Amino acid sequence: MKVRYVTMTLLLFRTVPKLEGFEYKSLLKMSTEEEHYLSPKCVNGIKWIMDVFGDCVDTDLKFFGFVIGFISLFLWLLPLIPQLLHNYRTKRCEGLSMYFLLFWILGDSCNMAGALLTNQQPLQKIIGVYYVLQDMTLLFQYFYYTRIYRRNEGIFCNRSNFFCAVNNCASIMPLLAVHITPLINSTAIVPSIFVGLFVIGALFSNKISSNSLRHRPTHETLPGNRRLLSIELGGQPLFHGYYDVLGYVIGSVSATCYFASRIPQLLKNYYRQSCEGLSLVMFYIIIGANVAYGLSVLLGGSGWHYILRHLPWLVGSLGVCVFDVFVVIQHFYYDRLHRNKDLTEQEGLLEDID
């Protein structure tokens, strides 16, 4: 579910080399003092963007990408709100997969941990904490409405009259119809998660092995006589230090979690033959946010070196969109299927009456 704009700043990939022969005028006229505080590699960048987000925006294309990324950041503040409201109104969370929530929380926790470990800007830290708190609220709703609320509702009805019991039974029967499925349906969720992780790992390993002949370890001397292992790709270092590697690893783990989270949700929808309980607005916002984020990454640079450095974020955004689109398709398909089934049953009852 979701690669966030804050994740991008976990890497120290804040500057992209300019193309040779490419001249560009600064987007904003800066004073000599402002230029002094900018990175030596980003003398023509916008100062406030560099200060707040740590991104070197020194071309119109990068600025357009930054605007799209900012839209993505705004959208990522909203997606869980429709689902939280839907759960509160219906007092149910049976449509959500617990593994979907757990993987989502793990991915956002990686975002927050990366922002804290790499000492990012306060804004990134606050957003990272906000995502985790929002996820924990949704997880609390899930356990409360599926475990505590239903149990208390049953106790209340046992102490009430017969009509309460009848109403409670009528409300629970659809849930029983959902949960009474073959044993293989419930036990296949966990293996499917590991299969998904294996496929993702294979894709990453194939990508790395295909370029292994071009990768060669070198040692780079940094200030303080500190020597760090780096990997060169086409003569350019892929990683520039331990924090660079740390950001890449955290981003890869986070992207893997977001990517794998959709598998159990898709399977649950398939076994239930329904998407009831899921907020379609949530998935619309997620798709929009991921598309905007993926475009902002692609507009931030070019070349295989840039793509490889940002591969986890592209997979975790544009790749996840494929699964989210399938969820939307499932919703319309099962909704139409149930409506046609209801019409068929109504026609059958009318024929019996006649």
From TrEMBL:
Q: Which Gene Ontology MF annotations are present?
A: basic amino acid transmembrane transporter activity
Q: What top-level branch of life does the organism fall under?
A: Eukaryota
The yes or no answer to whether the keyword Repeat is present is: no
The cellular location(s) given in this protein's UniProt record come to: Membrane
Q: How does it sit in the membrane?
A: Multi-pass membrane protein
- Where does it primarily localize? membrane
Keywords attached to this entry: Membrane, Transmembrane, Transmembrane helix
Name assigned to this protein: PQ loop repeat family protein
Record's GO cellular component, any one? lytic vacuole membrane
Family of this protein: Belongs to the laat-1 family.
Pfam families named among the record's database cross-references: PQ-loop
Q: What InterPro entries does the record point to? A: LAAT-1, PQ-loop_rpt
Bilayer-crossing regions: 63-85, 97-117, 123-145, 183-204, 281-307, 313-334
Taxonomy of origin reads: Eukaryota, Metazoa, Ecdysozoa, Nematoda, Chromadorea
Protein species of origin = Thelazia callipaeda (Oriental eyeworm)
Asked if the keyword Transmembrane helix belongs to this entry, the reply reads yes
